[in-house]
Every structure is written in C-alpha cells, then in structure tokens.
Amino acid sequence: MSIVITGYGMICAVGEDAPRVWQNLVADRTGIGENTIVPRPGVMSDRAGQVRSLPEPDRPLRDRSLRLGERALAEALERAGIADSGYRTERIGLSLGTSLGAARQGERFQRRWLSRGIEHTHARELLEYPLHAVADSLAAQFGIEGPRLVHSNACAAGSVAIANGFELVADGLADVVLAGGLDPLAYLSFGGFSSLGVLSARNCAPYTRSDGITLGEGAGFLVLEREETARRRGAHVVARLLGYGLSADAYHPTAPDPRGRGALEAMRQALRMAGLDGRDVDYVNGHGTGTPANDAGEIKTIKALRDVPVPMSSSKSMIGHTLGAAGAIEAVVSVMTLEHQRIHPTYVPPDATAQESFAALEAAGRVDVVGSGARDLAVDVVVSNSFAFGGNNASLALGSPEPAAETPAVRPPAVLPREAVAVTGVAALAGGAASMAQIDRAVAQDAVPATERVGVWAGHDYPVSRAATAALRAGLNPRSVRRFDRLGLLAAHVTRQLIRDHGIERGELAGCGLILATSTGPLETIQRFQGGLLTDGAGDSRLFPNTVMNAAAGHVCMAFGLHGPTATICSGWTSGVAALHLARQTIRNGACSRVIVVAVDEACDALVAGYSRFPGFLTTDVARPGRDTGVILAEAAAAVLLERTDGPGASARPPLVRIDGVGMAGGAQGPGRMGGPRACLRAYRAALDQAGIGPEDLSVVVSAASGRGGIDAVEKQALAELGLGAHTRILVPKAATGETQSAAPLIGLGLEAVRAGGGRALISGLGVGGSHQSLIVRP
User: Fold this and answer.
1) Does the keyword Ubl conjugation apply (predicted)?
2) Termini Cα distance of the chain
3) Residue 383: beta bridge partners?
C-alpha cells in the first residue's frame, strides 16, 4: 500500500508557517536568540529557538504547547483540503509526538503546591498536563474523532508518531492521519539539560563547533492518506512516506552508541521497507544536535550508509532542538526539500572555531555537510533522522510524489497477514498481586486490592495498591537497578518475569523489539527533579535522565540487550492497546520476528495528590466498579510477548492468545471529560469488524470499569447498545486489582490466556479525555 503526504504545516523559531520557515532556512537565517519566557535560575545558557510571534502572557488560558500545535495543524489541514475531502470525522486519526506536552501547566501547579500546599492548587491546571491531554485538546479543537495516539520517545517522538500514523492508515484503522509533534520551551528541559552541562552558551553549531545544544520550540504535522483515495479526491500529493525504521542502542541512558549501530540499523530498516538501499539516498536531514557525541556518532553513521558521501544538513542549527517536535518539523522540511528540489544549509556561526571546523570538514571530503548557502539538487529520496535519549532511534524514508519507474533495488519484505502474529507469553503484577496467577486468584476471590494508604493533607488520605520494592529488585543486576527509578524498576521486573517464565533465550533477545506503554510515566521522578529546580534553582543531574517518558524503555533494552524496534506510547489508560497494535505491525512489516510489549504505571504520592483535586475520583474506602465509589489507584506492570508464528523466523512457542481485532476511536469533548458512549461503541465495532465477528459471538467482555461513575457509565451504555448475547459474561478485574491504568488491557489479555476458557473476548479500554481502544482476542 502506498501512503502519500497531501498536506503539511509547521511553526518554529524561523517562521510561523511552512513557507516562511522554508524561506529562512534556505536563506541560512538563524532564529536562535535570547530566551525570554523560561526562568533563568539553574540554567547555563540564555540562548533559545523561541517563537517570537507567539506571546506568552503571565496566565495563559491555553498552554503554549497547544497554541503551537493548533497553528501547525490548522495549516496542514488547510493545505491538504481536508475540510472538503468528504472524510468522516471518525475516520480521521491523530498521531502525536511530544516530550514535554503541557509541562508549563505542570510547573505552575507544582509552584503553587510547594508555596501554598496541595489544598490550594487548581485542578484546572492539571486538565491539560498529562501528555494525552494535549491530543485530547487538539482533537476537540479540530473535531477529530478517529484513533488518537501520543508518543514520547524524547527527541524521536515526532518521527515515531509519523511512523505509527503510517500504520494506522496501512491497517485500515483510519482513512487519513494527522501525524506530527509539538513541544514548547519549558523550565523542566532547560534545567535538565543544564544539569547535564550540555547547553551551548552560544548558537549551537552542529557538525562544526559541537559544544552543546540550543533548545527550541515548535510544531510540525503531515497529512497521511492512501494514495488511491487521495488521487480519487483530487488532492495534491506532495511526497510519499516510503518507510520507517526504529531501533534501540541498548547502550546508555543519555549518550548514543559511539559505534552508531542502532542509528544505522534504523536508516537501513526504513530503506528496506521502501525497497531501497543507501545508494538511492539523495539527502539526509540529520539529527544534528550540536553535542560532540551526537555529531560524531551521526557522521560516522552517515559515512557507513554508502560509499560516496551523501549531502546532509541540520535544521536544528537555525531553529534549535525542539525535542518531541524535532522529528516532525524535520520531516516537513524533508518534504519541502523534495518539493523545491533544494537542500537548506547547516548554519555555521561566524566564530572562528565553527568556521575552521567547517573548513576542515570540507577539505577532508569524507562527509558532505551542506553549508555556506542552499544547494540546488535533484532529490528523489530523503532520509530524516531522529536519535533520542535512551538510545531510541527513528528514521523516515520520504520520496517524490510520483512512483519510481525502475524496479526497486531491494525487494521490500512482504507484509504478513494479521494471523501470522500471536501472543506467546504474558507476565504481570498489579499492586500486591505479584504474578498473573496471583492476579487471576485475586479476581476469582474478589479480593480488596489496597496495600497501604497515602495521606495528601490533613484529613485526606486514600487507599492505593503497590508492590513490595524488595520483590521488584530480586533477580535484577544491582548495577542496573541503581539507575532505575520506580517506573524503570517495575518495567524491568515484569520483563525479567516474562523472559524467565517463557524461556526466551539470549540469542532471541538481541533482535527483539520493545514497545512500552505508560499513562503518566515517571511522575515521581519529574516531581522530584522539578521540585529541586523550583525550590533550589538547580535540578539533580542523577534524576533528569529518568524524567523522559521513554527512560524505562531504555533501561529495559540495556538490561536485557534488546536492539529491535522501540517506541513509548503515552495515550492514557488505553496506551496498552496502541502498543500491542504497533508491535504487531512491526512484525508484520518484517522489521523483526518478536516484540515485547510492556505497559507500566506508578501509583506514586504525586499521582494520588493530583487526582485528589477532583472530588469523588478517588475512593477513601473500597472501590466498587459501577457504583460510583471512586477508584483505587494501583501501580502495575504487564509484559506480553508477540511473535511471528509461521514462516522464516517463526517461534517454536505455542500461541497463548491471538489478537483478532483492534478498534480505536476518539471523542472530541476535550481533556478531562468522557462524553457519551458513541466513541466507545465505535471502538468496539471496529475491533469486531476487524475480527470478522458480531457481538453475539463474544464469550466474555473484560470490563474497564473501576469505580468512577462517569467513566463506568460510558462503558455500560456502550455495551448495552452493542447488544451482547445472553451467554456473554462480564469480567470486572479492577474490582480486585484497582485501576491499573495502561497495564489494564494487557492484564485483561493475560487473564484470557491464563483461563483459556475458549471463545472470543472483548477487552474494553477507555480513558479520561475520550480515547477508546479495544481488542478482540481468542485462545
């Protein structure tokens, strides 16, 4: 299937729309200047790629990240003509990448908490704060009611979002996907990179002076469609998304592998998917951050791509490092490179060190860094690179709008049928229930999940369910454990459990992928690091690497030697379903033969404190799903092994469960709201349609109800309208596990594997903000 790009939009330091950005990039004009919107205490540089045209009031009504995203998304939609396309809103998806989201809102909330106490904070400041809430806000603003995904692989997030947007269209879950990324300038990132000592005191100088990064902000979006549909509606096709590659270095929490093996594999994987090799690449839009390690490693990787130096340049040299938006903005720049047949230069600052370094690069001739002006060149294939914290690598292969006339240099792997991939292993913990078998017993006995209580302020304490720390550490390498925060420890523990219980050999792990799902990520670590910034004017450098959402995935890859495709999905409580879908798609595309999917969330004090600001959300006693008692938060982790089950590379492990259908839908009511049952019902029906069955064929429904009346009622109404058979059982595991957040769908799948009762099961997934994702599984 050919996926084409029919629209794009972006905003960043050199322009408030794509034409102005392009004009300034090819003119070699930097947008980097003085930071005027982020506090300076504890910050080692005042340089920033700030969007000057976007004012920042003291008390903004909408977070800066949203205002950036709205501008770029509106431009992309208009350029693609989506308003007149005839697409139904429920068939339009949103695939978003972000590292920070509405972090500025979170900072305001924490400042008030620290200065006045939690009881004087404003709940409204938390509505936009979770990463998935940014997507919920954009969906409401633009009436997007299709699948809604959020990715947070640090500075590869935008590229991963585009890759997963490709998969949503390719697998028929959406007709068109708005895929991209956004991030604002924020104190958290300035303080964090300062704590590591990697901010440049001057304009960053990628590939030349290489003395540190300059942070930037912005947003970029592409409109992805099937080619036949786009041409039928008369859309102007500007480029093709030919393929993507994802990989893990499994080397270090922050530094790239100096050998560049993971980065090179991501590029080669993207090209293989496109039926190309390094000889076909005309231009590389480099990661080009300006740090010595990143620049040196990337240059080594590009040199290995083909024998003759390929032209490359760094957009970050003029706009700064826009973190989660970087891959998306650079993908838009890559599309415009194809469109204009022109390569923008790498900005080389006028200082002697940068100029002399560039002259030395040119004289050596081993790489072709475009500088000293734009270059006109015939460009048919572009590779856009994003290499992130945690060793997460993502590359996109983009091509000219017309298909190549020649036979592909490399035969792309055939896409496997869905039934060729199955679940062959499951492991999980939920609070005090330390294994899948213990969870099953707890559900059978209707156990009370709470293990302890958390006091938020005087007279306000709440039950939670947590695992024993000593048990989590058992069997893990103590040297690795020292680097873990709570989220990383939970993820590593359940991965070890999966590997041990299902006999996964070391040789099988090397090429294995890892897709991690989390709703709120390392919230405890973020609170601690940012708390230090706000109170002492300095953040702890030991904490900062674990504040990124994909840190846990990086730790798991390092601990167990996983080098395959990796991504981190932060779509709220439904994240586990999205992670399973992406994992299945990477196997179907031939990127690997097996993927471990981990869904993990904390129930830390900060999370309890945040939810306590919403009256009635948390119970003070026992949670009874369906009775509006309030919920019990549970820390939980689940790991699922997906493997190819026939053909070359097939697993010898017998399937435990097969995923017959995936359904995703979204409401457009905005963050913090549930809306009615319509979107939930659409997700159920989409999963049933993909499985080729009707509701009367279901043996069991694994409910997502957890005790919050407004949420539980949406599911109840949707199931009533779906029309279940009289024989269909309803299983409500959260009565015994508590609210296990992103792990809930995987635990539901695990219960079906443990019980092996026969028949098909609907695993219901819904979350605050209106993102609904469900599965149809069978033994």
Assistant:
1) no
2) 30
3) 284, 397
Instruction: Quick: pLDDT tens for 238-292.
Output: 999 999 999 999 999 888 888 889 999 999 999 999 999 999 999 999 999 999 9
CB 12 within 8 A of CB 51: yes
Catalytic residue status for 155: yes
Nearest-angstrom CA–CA distance, 533 and 544: 11
Among 166, 175, 167, residue whose Cα is nearest residue 145: 175
Q: What is the full DSSP assignment across 138-205?
A: HHHHHT--S-EEEE--GGGHHHHHHHHHHHHHHTTS-SEEEEEEEE---HHHHHHHHHTT-B-SSS--
Residue 375 CB-density burial (10 A; 0-12 exposed, 13-18 middle, 19+ buried): middle
Please tell me the predicted confidence (pLDDT) of residue 632: 98
**Residue 125, pLDDT above cutoff 90:** no
CA nearest 184: which of 72, 281, 265, 263?
72
Per the annotation, the verdict on 287 as an active-site residue is: yes
405-458 pLDDT tens trace: 666 667 888 999 999 999 999 999 999 999 999 999 999 999 989 999 999 988
Catalytic residue (one of 132, 151, 155, 604): 155
> What pLDDT does residue 407 have?
66
Please tell me whether residue 652 adopts helix, strand or coil conformation.
coil
Q: Which of 287, 555, 563, 581 is catalytic?
A: 287
Residue 570 is a catalytic residue: no
Q: Say if CB 487 and CB 525 are below 8 A apart.
A: yes
Residues ≥6 apart with Cβ < 8 Å to 444: none
Nearest Cα residue to 308 out of 334, 341, 280, 275: 280
Whole-angstrom distance, CA of residue 359 vs CA of residue 548: 36
**Pair of tokens at residue 762:** 């609907």
Query: Among candidates 694, 703, 699, which has minimal Cα distance to 755?
Result: 699
- Those residues with Cβ within 8 angstroms of residue 301's Cβ, 6 or more apart along the chain or in another chain: 260, 263, 264, 267
- What is the DSSP secondary structure assignment for residue 312, as one 8-state letter? E
Q: Is 360 exposed, middle or buried (0-12, 13-18, 19+ CB in 10 A)?
A: exposed
What are 627-680's pLDDT values in tens digits? 999 999 999 999 999 999 988 889 999 999 999 999 999 999 999 999 899 999
Helix (H) or strand (E) holding 399: strand 392-399
Tokens standing for 61?
Answer: 């009504």
Please check whether residue 736 is in contact with residue 447, taking contact to mean a CB–CB distance below 8 angstroms: yes
Pairwise CA distance, residues 326 & 217, whole Å = 9
Q: Is 470 exposed, middle or buried (0-12, 13-18, 19+ CB in 10 A)?
A: exposed
Q: Which amino acid is at 264?
A: L
Task: Compute CA distances 622 → 464, 712, 744, whole Å.
Answer: 10, 16, 19
Paired residues of 47 in beta bridges:
34
d(CA 518, CA 639) in angstroms, rounded, equals 12
Angle, CA of 300, 305 and 306, to the nearest 5°: 115
Question: Which domains are seen in the chain, by residue range?
Answer: 3-399 (3.40.47.10), 418-778 (3.40.47.10)
**Tokens linked to 105:** 């809102």
- Whether the CB-CB separation of 520 and 541 falls below 8 Å is answered with no
- Identify the active-site residue in 321, 344, 555, 581: 321
Rounded-to-5 percentages of helix, strand, coil across the chain: 40, 20, 40
* Residues 141-148, mean pLDDT to the nearest whole number: 97
Give the largest CA-CA distance in the chain.
Answer: 79
Tokens 């958390």, located at residue = 454
In what helix (H) or strand (E) does residue 663 lie, and over which residues does it extend?
A: strand 658-666
Among the residue ranges 56-65, 92-101, 696-705, the one predicted with the least confidence is 56-65
Residue-averaged pLDDT of the chain: 95
